[in-house]
Design goal:
The structure is a homodimer of 426-residue chains. Chain A is built from 14 helices and 14 strands. The first copy, chain A, is α/β, with parallel strands linked by helices and 426 residues long. In chain A, the strands form 3 sheets. Chain A has an 8-stranded mixed β-sheet, with helices on both faces. In chain A, α3 crosses α11, α5 runs parallel beside α6 and α8 packs across α9. The interface between A and B is large, with 87 and 86 residues.
Chain lengths: 426, 426
Amino acid sequence: MATLWKSRYAQRTQRMGRSIIRELLKFTAQPDLISFAGGLPAPELFPTERCQEAACRLLSEHGAQALQYGASEGFPPLRQFICDQMSRYGIYAQPDNVVITSGSQQALDAIGKLLINPGDRILIEEPTYLGALQAWNAYQADYIPVPIDDDGLCTDKLEPALRSGPKFMYVLPNFQNPGGTTLALSRRHDVVALSNRYGIPIVEDDPYGALRFTGEHLPPLVALDANLQATVGLNGHGYMEGNVIYLGTFSKTLAPGLRLGWMVAPVEVIDQVVMAKQGMDLHTSTFTQMLAYEMVKDGFLDDHIRLIRKVYGERRQVMLDALQRYFPEGCSWTRPDGGLFLWARVPDWMDTADMLQEAVRFKVAYVPGFAFYSDPNRGRNTMRLNFSCEQPEKIEEGIRRLGKMLEQHMADHLPKVVAVPATVPG
Amino acid sequence: MATLWKSRYAQRTQRMGRSIIRELLKFTAQPDLISFAGGLPAPELFPTERCQEAACRLLSEHGAQALQYGASEGFPPLRQFICDQMSRYGIYAQPDNVVITSGSQQALDAIGKLLINPGDRILIEEPTYLGALQAWNAYQADYIPVPIDDDGLCTDKLEPALRSGPKFMYVLPNFQNPGGTTLALSRRHDVVALSNRYGIPIVEDDPYGALRFTGEHLPPLVALDANLQATVGLNGHGYMEGNVIYLGTFSKTLAPGLRLGWMVAPVEVIDQVVMAKQGMDLHTSTFTQMLAYEMVKDGFLDDHIRLIRKVYGERRQVMLDALQRYFPEGCSWTRPDGGLFLWARVPDWMDTADMLQEAVRFKVAYVPGFAFYSDPNRGRNTMRLNFSCEQPEKIEEGIRRLGKMLEQHMADHLPKVVAVPATVPG
């Protein structure tokens, strides 16, 4: 009878698949393997004690509320806290501009539900966050990829892409996943200006923004857009009336296991998302929302973020130094100012997906870069390396193994420079 | 600029709406009002102490795991626990047949994502669970309603509906929301036989099955279907290969604020749902999953369910007695054997949506029945009454107020029996 089900969902799930990544990463579940493949925060930094105190207090003082159904838009004090927190980054939202989501992954799904009809085209960075493609493939989206370089989205290539009429553009300005790149300030202004000129809204995904190790914080697109709206007199009804949906999360600052993210948008958009969210899961766990609020309400988050920044910044440096030391000539990589990932390129003729099994024999793993492209034939010579989750000595050792594997592979497979035979004169 | 967004989602959200219910129920947020409108479990029964102990222990012993990302299919020991629990109800599933969802609302959304294309028709009970309609409206489903009576879905009306080719049928066999009705055993066999004859799968939603106050437990459709598959030799690969997706939840037995439900289905279906769930929210909170497991793993759930049954059973009886005492002639209601709700009918000419404001003046509230119909012009003389969430003396008093309101309304509005004038002979 299972065939009956299959006939019912066949056309849908072809597009949802990407199971090749799951299959590839199954190899990597070995105890002595050093994995740069995951996207996990460092578990030793999780605030478990703070969480325990908060859970005890919460259940003593507000147990019945924490375990009951709640509002679809989220726990009001947490929404207020998020507003206060975001105002430091120049985002002046009211709680009505905020909906709590079950991780920012759910926000991506809600955006798909609200905005994407089959065949709609979404402008994406190339490469981009795999989870966004997964969420939107289910709505049968098509993509208009625009490349990134070391300064993020190549805005000089943006206009032709905008002219072809995407429903919205999806941008990760800070320490992009997977690229590790940061969108330069002048390009941020370009993105916002072009968005307004062409009437194409922006979905700004900012999971890592608070985790900057080096350099100065840059204003988020949603803040630049709000300024622009005010300047040209389009914004008569308050600050959050603009062209940007902004996504934030506690996954990288508190803990991903709580599944807590948020969306900031004009009230009209939030109202629609709240309606959609009722059908999606009624609301995000009251318990985890109140627990997070209990953890952060007295100013704990700033100190904790400082700690995370310090540790990840050190690990990034270890990885950069090791890449310099161990990676063979012909390879290059980004130097992220924050976040969890960097992006490495090997020579064009190499295929990182094919090489993953070799890497696993060397007891090291990564994510083959093609996974982050809408067209899996692209990015074949790239890989994403996570530096947040392994200890420094493991990072050093893992990059050493990876470098060795690459050298070996090059030695075994390097295309020989074949002497072109002199053409026989006719 | 918000108009820009509006133009982008307009066609979608017309169908997601149903905000009329939210608007109606806004009236009911008054401290001295007795509300039968919610669908809330009794908060005084929440196992807050047990939850507190479990949270402390969990964070001491497995804090890093509980706060980290987890598998999309859910926490394995919890899936095993669910299998053990369900086997008592004749459902012999393996953990591979189970995916943990963020409440069973998310399972409904996942089903929509997997199975519903715009214009697909879903066979539903009439009335049915509002949240399912909300979830599936977003996928632009159409509906084929089949009425229920005191024995649940009217299976004698099922065949013509199945012949018109629904994608699947959606059935709540136990203490239906909103009807409070239970599908009779012979009808369960009919539903399963017809499902197999016409090749139309079943989505069986069973949030209240464990909360039976009176009568004998009846086998779930998924168990009857598995038996039938085995009998006719269709099931060669184990028990869970059938025609039914079964949905369960901890919302009514532990606490809704945790947002924990589950889906049981053939492995092939589960694999697809897990893929979809990655795009929806990556996974349900590791923390709440491990917390629930920590709460129930030593056999606490049975005792706790016994307590809930006892309390809700008493409240149901108080409501039934009060209805008998205070509701005017011409009204009728169901006598649920379990669950949280009963369903009342007033005379045909009355409109419960129109009357809600009157009821609020009498300091009592309910959900107008039309909300549970795919066609809001139907069920206008019905209402859903929740008996789980108010104390017995409040239930008695609330029904007294509601009866008084109905009497008053009848006296003010009863269509006069107009004497038909004798026709003048020609």
